[in-house]
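In response to reviewer comment 3 from the previous cycle, which asked for concrete evidence that the modeling workflow produces usable outputs, we include below a single protein chain processed end to end. The sequence was submitted unchanged, and the resulting structure tokens are shown without manual editing.
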Amino acid sequence: MTSHIYAIGQQVSFDRRIGTYLKRAGVFTVTKLLPPSGTELQYRVKSEGEAYERVASEHELHVAELGTPIVAGESRLSQVDKNAARVFAGLS
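The workflow returned the following structure tokens.
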């Protein structure tokens, strides 16, 4: 049995390569792991800007890119620390 690759509370976006007539742009938070529909795992996701939740298949989602993190006291960090923070944040 396969397991879900996204976790409750994780922020995801819909894959832009998947064509759809619905506007599904932006960041969504996984609110529930759902059982598979056939062989495809599913999730319940919610956007802050919408009053309702959506159901999404795993292949439609990817980890949300949240932008560059803000680092306090950046001038005190060494270049190694800066690079490590970027790697940890998934930016490089």
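The helical segments are 79-88. We consider this sufficient to address the reviewer's concern, and the full set will be provided in the supplementary archive.
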